[in-house]
UniProtKB/TrEMBL annotation:
Record lineage: Bacteria, Pseudomonadati, Pseudomonadota, Gammaproteobacteria, Pseudomonadales
Protein name: Metalloregulator ArsR/SmtB family transcription factor
Boundaries of every HTH arsR-type domain copy: 10-105
Entries under InterPro entries matching the protein: ArsR-like_HTH, HTH_ArsR_DNA-bd_dom, Methyltransf_11, SAM-dependent_MTases_sf, WH-like_DNA-bd_sf, WH_DNA-bd_sf
PROSITE patterns: HTH_ARSR_2
SMART domains: HTH_ARSR
UniProt cross-references to Gene3D superfamilies, sorted A to Z: Vaccinia Virus protein VP39 (3.40.50.150), Winged helix-like DNA-binding domain superfamily/Winged helix DNA-binding domain (1.10.10.10)
Originating organism: Marinobacter halodurans
Length: 334
């Protein structure tokens, strides 16, 4: 554990700010809750399922942890989810205490039964997303354009990628969630090899037709999720792209972990996605699991995955939505 500088002794009632944090974390169950929420965001009903306890009891623990600053509620439409607070800087004594608690609990391996229940919830979310795309595969473009036209995010992403390539072709690129395959034409043009992975068989079929129609012969389409590529493709890609994907996946933070494992040193992860919004209709009409993300969330997930944050571009849309185009880089090994 890294040592930290002592906090000034003349701060008024300095130790008083530690009491709520230490009291709230002085319970094994609450520490397990914090461990479970390392990267995930869960609602009270989901956490009750994971820990096999009554909702009222779980709500009490979440309230205590939230009041102590160890958790923060996040509204998603009509539902409340809980996550660990996003802190880029650890400045106050309370912040340091919270950081130390997280650092300690993250060293503890999750029991198998908790991991299994978390995976069950992730699978349920994934099934929900897959079912939507299976029902609406033929109307995919129309559904997506309720929020943003493809060109509105694809063009700035392509410009950013071209800028990073500096006139060179990428050796190998990966697109997570290619949808109908519209962006694969761009990746196929600027990359020697492209892998595209999607958990929707229906969308992969449409992407395959798109590749055939445009004569792309350097694209490999795989059914599944990014984490299942690690064994065969670890440290294989110079570029990973995820366009408007995060708000459809069960655990968005995992995309950053997977990308970090799949990228070569010096590789780039480029993401376009929605900023946080309150348009709950997008869940039913567009198959969204999440109502966008705060830019700080993406930066925190990238930092936890060992990636450096690069350029950021915000695109305001006339319908009130805002898109963020983000660049992250995997540092060179020392």
């Amino acid at each position: 554990m890294n040592s930290i500088a002592p906090f000034p002794a003349d701060q008024p009632a300095a130790l008083d700010v530690l009491a709520p944090v230490l009291k709230a974390s002085g319970d094994p169950l609450r520490l397990e809750i914090l461990r479970v929420l390392q990267r995930d965001t869960f609602g009270v009903l989901e956490l009750s399922r994971i820990f096999d306890m009554r909702q009222s009891g779980m709500s009490h623990h979440l309230k205590v942890l939230s009041q102590a600053g160890l958790l923060e509620p996040q509204r998603e439409g009509n539902a409340i989810f809980y996550r660990r607070p996003l802190r880029a800087n650890v400045e106050s004594l309370a912040d340091r205490a919270v950081h130390q608690v997280f650092e300690l609990v993250d060293q503890v391996v999750l029991p198998a039964h908790l991991s299994e229940r978390i995976q069950e919830i992730r699978d349920q979310r994934a099934d929900q997303s897959q079912a939507f795309f299976a029902r609406h595969a033929e109307q995919f473009r129309e559904q997506q354009e309720l929020i943003a036209a493809f060109e509105q995010y694809a063009e700035p992403v392509a410009e950013l990628i071209a800028q990073k390539a500096a006139g060179q072709r990428w050796r190998a690129s990966l697109e997570i969630g290619p949808g109908e395959g519209a962006f694969l034409a761009e990746l196929g043009r600027i990359s020697e090899q492209v892998v595209a992975v999607d958990n929707s068989r229906d969308m992969l079929s449409k992407a395959r037709i798109s590749c055939e129609d445009t004569g792309l012969d350097n694209i490999r389409l795989l059914e599944g999720t990014a984490d299942r590529l690690r064994d065969e493709h670890r440290a294989s890609f110079d570029l990973v792209v995820a366009n408007m994907v995060l708000h459809h996946v069960p655990s968005p933070a995992d995309i950053f972990v997977d990308a970090a494992a799949l990228m070569r040193d010096g590789g780039y992860l480029v993401i376009s996605d929605l900023c946080s919004h309150d348009q709950n209709w997008a869940k039913a009409n567009c198959g969204d699991l999440w109502l966008g993300f705060e830019p700080e969330e993406l930066s925190a997930w990238a930092r936890d995955a060992g990636l450096e944050t690069g350029e950021t571009l915000f695109i305001g849309l006339r319908n009130g939505f805002q898109i963020q185009v983000r660049e992250f880089r995997k540092p060179e090994s020392q």
